[in-house]
Amino acid sequence: MQAQGVSAKQLADELVSFLATTMKTAQGEVFKVVEELDLSMTQLKMLFVLDGSERELTPSELAKSIGLSPAAAGRAADALTRQGVVSRREDDQDRRVKRLALTEHGKECVNRISAARREGLTRLTERLDPDQRAALSQALAPLQPDPSSSPDCAPSAKELR
């Protein structure tokens, strides 16, 4: 194991390599579930953005968060609505504004995808002996997000504004 002389850049390079390996390890399970759910990559992004949001989003807010035109995001949201993954309702103050949120089925889909990711990562960490797992857990602790925040990488509603 490396001593104290590790620069922030060197550690960042090692983390990039580690993250690439973990993503490759976990992606097989994730892609299998995404295929079973018949989701496009755009729809997958939408699910996780809606899951990470503290409130219902408008199609425009959702489009902005995933880098699509409002029309393209609207088509993807329409498909998710037909699949029963996303609900769409009129805004209480302005009926012209639509609000999008995950349905219970949508939350189950997100949970299945997250479980598949976790399964892949579990396979990777099973290669470590107990002392290595404990050391890695201890080293990662200061880098972990605040437990009161969302566990996924989806932007919060505050970040969408």
Low-confidence stretches: 154-161
Order of helices and strands: HHHHEEHHH
Strand order of the largest sheet: 1-2
Helix fraction bin: 55-70%
CATH class: Mainly Alpha
Can you tag this structure with a few keywords?
Arc Repressor Mutant, subunit A; elongated; mainly alpha; 6% strand; 161 residues; disordered C terminus
Summarize the structure in words.
Helices cover 61% and strands 6% of the residues. It is mainly alpha-helical and 161 residues long. It has a single domain, classed as Winged helix-like DNA-binding domain superfamily/Winged helix DNA-binding domain (Arc Repressor Mutant, subunit A). Strands 1-2 form a two-stranded antiparallel ribbon. A hairpin with a 7-residue loop joins strand 1 (86-90) and strand 2 (98-102). The longest helix has 29 residues, at 8-36.
In short:
By secondary structure, the chain is mainly α. The chain is 61% helix and 6% strand. Residues 154-161 have low confidence and may be disordered.
Question: Helix and strand layout, with pairings?
Answer:
Blueprint: H1 8-36, H2 41-52, H3 59-66, H4 70-82, E1 86-90, E2 98-102, H5 104-125, H6 130-140, H7 157-160
Antiparallel strand pairs: 1-2
